Amino acid sequence: MGVLRVVFLGPPGAGKGTQAKFLEQKFGACLVGTGEILRKAVRERSPLGRKAVQYLDRGDLVPDHVMVKLVAERLRARDCQSGFILDGFPRTIAQADGLEPMLKDIGLALDSALCIQAPNEVIIQRLSGRRTCKVCGSLYHVVFDPLARAGKCDRCGGELYQREDDREEMIAARLRVYESQTAPLKEYYCRRGLLKEIDGVGNVEEVRNRVFRALGAVAT
Ligand code: AP5
Q1: Which of 10, 27, 181, 205 has the most crowded Cβ, counting Cβ within 10 A?
Q2: 133 alpha carbon to ligand 1 midpoint, in Å?
């Protein structure tokens, strides 16, 4: 397959960001991770970051109109013309409804909505051990990924940190938000014939192979 245009769905910690990075490398598509964009804005104390911080701190969703505007601007950029991977957007029916005219405007259509599934006990284990590079956003895990133990990013040397919203009480709040606001998107994309459900249990390579198979591509 050539140009890739996909959205990633699935609960927090299912492995969306990890798999999205593989697709970025394989297809050269533009990776738009809304959570990472928001966290960067918060770190830089930009106007978007000042608006978003209160929602991120509670594990709540940033309002739809803010997110739709942000993604519309990003998708209009030239690099997204050669394919895109949306990780973390859409997260509500209103956002999905906002995405359709956005794509129409720029003359693009979605290929697939990839939904990675994992049970809560797997999610909690993954999120509580996650470490993220402050500089390049690379993902590590203190149990599953020995590279994380050095405390520095293997790719760029940046410092690894634990996300505030990966504390246990926040994980529970995020799972509730996922169930009530984001899970209905499965039905939304199923009705459009775009949903591809992927079992997220297993190691990173096993899940990667399932994602590639779902897209009709070979993992190399
Ligand atoms: P966001 O950053 O999108 O967080 P999320 O959806 O909760 O997803 P995560 O990043 O927590 O998990 P993931 O599925 O990507 O898992 P990962 O690959 O890292 O959003 C954060 C916040 O921003 C939201 O709560 C909200 O406030 C706001 N926001 C963002 N988008 C928004 C929107 N559209 N609208 C409104 N608000 C929005 O993996 C997790 C860990 O497990 C890692 O350590 C990884 O190394 C490890 N791992 C991954 N796969 C495997 C595997 N197969 N085996 C073992 N370990 C694995």
Answers
A1: 10
A2: 14
What residues have CB less than 8 Å from 113, skipping those under 6 apart? 6, 7, 8, 9, 185, 189, 194, 195, 196
**Catalytic site residue 5?**
no
Domains of the chain and any CATH numbers = 4-119+184-214 (3.40.50.300)
Structure tokens of 185?
């998107």
Residues having CB within 6 Å of any atom of ligand 1: 10, 12-18, 34-35, 38, 55-56, 59-62, 67, 88-89, 91, 95, 126-127, 130, 139-141, 144-145, 165, 174, 202-204, 207
Q: What are the distances in angstroms from CA 212 to CA 19, 22, 32?
A: 10, 9, 19
Residue 161 is encoded by which pair of tokens? Answer: 């940190």
Q: Which atom of ligand 1 is nearest to the CA of 18?
A: 18
131 among known catalytic residues: no
CA distances from 187 to 4, 10, 147, 176 (A): 22, 13, 38, 18
Q: Could you read off the pLDDT of 143-192 as tens digits, one per residue?
A: 998 888 888 999 999 999 999 899 888 999 999 999 999 999 999 999 99
- The answer on pLDDT for 98 being more than 90 is yes
Instruction: Please identify which of the residues 134, 152, 163, 186 carries the catalytic annotation.
Output: 163
